[in-house]
Design goal:
The chain is of the alpha+beta class. It is 36% helix and 20% strand. The chain contains 12 helices and 17 strands. The strands form 4 sheets. The chain has an 8-stranded mixed β-sheet with strand order 1-2-4-3-5-17-6-16. Strands 8, 10, 11, 13 and 14 form a 5-stranded antiparallel β-sheet that branches. α1 crosses α12 and α8 runs antiparallel to α9. The longest helix is centred in the last third of the chain and has 22 residues. It starts with 7 loop residues before the first helix and ends with a helix.
Length: 412
């Protein structure tokens, strides 16, 4: 069993065939959730699953589960998967790799006539990207009870079309109640979407956790005035005060390495005129870290600094937390299964805490879960030029195969 390997060429060809659905001129993929292209992608993957002998179940939010029976069907299945919807300027591998790696595991076991003790399942979740409908990670979120099916159904895109209507239209509004589907363990294989593995020259990232994040909207209110006649000492310049807070966001993150993150990614300046002192600035704040304790410390330091800046400047400053996802540690049994598989297969490895959200975060609320990362070129993802080496993708799939077998067991 230690010599067991997947067919890397077959995995690559499947990825390239799926990537043709919604292919863009720059080599990427645009396959938004619940569009006709998403239906075509779903139909292709489900067709492959049925060709591999898998029984297909679709739940009411459109999550798809493709089952390979085990010797003991009473055991909860060991599940792997991800998503096949993409960003508007997405790549070939984000999400798609995790689904097709699971399919390749099944194809390999079929070819070798190997039966597992527990069933295996390959899943893909609805609207992970959140690029057409919000919230993100919708299918897995409904599955674990993070929000209701009714809330998801009511979500609208920019044209006013709802999730419920679009699921019905494309034929993927199933009957199974989300969350009623048992999961014994869950693994998700994914490109890293960051530069750490490539920079370190490692092939496999063992993912012990996903960072938590806090998102805020900050508004600084000053007073517009003419840029020429108003002396510097008499200005109520909202932008200059806002930049002081922006710099502190970065300093806070740097105080809590290695996983502290602090980002200001969106800024709106009013009136945004060349010769007018800004009277109002609205900007986003994104704080991340790997533990609740560290993230809360960063939160409190940011609020304290804003309070001091409000007092020192005399300007009205408001901060509202608009989103919070707690850090997600993965189950030690699943993390250790990935680690053991990597060591057995002889791949270079390191631990990588994920800074991005994945369906595994929600799966971890209902079952022991873990993730496997492989490098992507220059750490670039959510971009049409997203790329990954075939041998790295093959290695990650081999690790997935052995980790799933460790959890599911080999039928004697």
């Amino acid at each position: 069993m230690n010599e067991l390997r997947i067919d890397g060429k077959r995995l690559w060809e499947s990825l390239m065939e799926l990537a043709r659905i919604g292919a863009t001129q720059k080599g990427g993929v645009k396959r938004l959730a619940l569009t006709d292209l998403d239906r075509q992608g779903r139909d292709l993957v489900v067709g492959w699953g049925r060709e591999a002998g898998l029984a297909v179940t679709v739940d009411q939010i459109g999550n798809v589960f493709m089952r390979r029976e085990g010797r003991n069907p009473a055991l909860p299945p060991v599940v792997t998967g991800s998503h096949i919807d993409t960003q508007p300027t997405g790549g070939k591998f984000d999400g798609n790799y995790g689904v097709l790696a699971g399919l390749e595991v099944v194809r390999t076991l079929n070819a070798l006539g190997i039966q597992t003790e527990a069933p295996l399942e390959v899943a893909f979740w609805t609207n992970e990207e959140g690029s057409r409908f919000v919230p993100v990670m919708m299918g897995s979120g409904v599955f674990c009870g993070a929000f209701s099916l009714e809330t998801a159904y009511a979500a609208r895109d920019t044209e006013g079309k709802t999730v419920g209507e679009e699921l019905e239209r494309i034929g993927y509004r199933g009957e199974e109640v989300p969350g009623r589907h048992p999961i014994g363990a869950y693994f998700e294989t994914h490109i890293e979407q960051g530069p750490v593995l490539e920079d370190a020259g490692k092939v496999i990232g063992v993912v012990p956790a996903v960072m938590g994040l806090s998102w805020y909207d900050c508004t600084v209110n000053g007073m517009e005035a003419h840029a020429g006649p108003t002396p510097m000492g008499l200005r109520r310049d909202a932008l200059q005060v806002a930049t002081v807070i922006m710099q502190e966001v970065v300093r806070i993150a740097n105080r809590y390495p290695p996983y502290g993150r602090g980002t200001v990614g969106m800024v709106q300046v009013f009136p945004n005129s060349r010769n007018v002192i800004p009277g109002q600035v609205k900007f986003s704040i994104d704080l991340r870290n790997v533990s609740d304790a560290l993230l809360n410390t960063m939160h409190e330091e940011m609020l304290a600094f804003v309070a001091r800046t409000r007092s020192d400047s005399g300007l009205a400053i408001e901060v509202e937390r608009v989103s919070y996802y707690p850090p997600c540690p993965f189950h030690p049994d699943c993390v250790n299964a990935v680690r053991a598989a990597t060591e057995k297969l002889g791949y270079s490895t390191m631990d990588v805490v994920s800074g991005a959200g994945h369906d595994a975060i929600y799966a971890a609320r209902v079952a022991p879960s873990g993730m496997i990362f492989v490098p992507c070129k220059d750490g670039i993802s959510h971009n049409e030029i997203e790329d990954a080496q075939p041998d790295h993708l093959e290695a990650g799939c081999n690790v997935l195969l052995h980790a799933m077998l460790e959890r599911a067991g080999i039928a004697s």
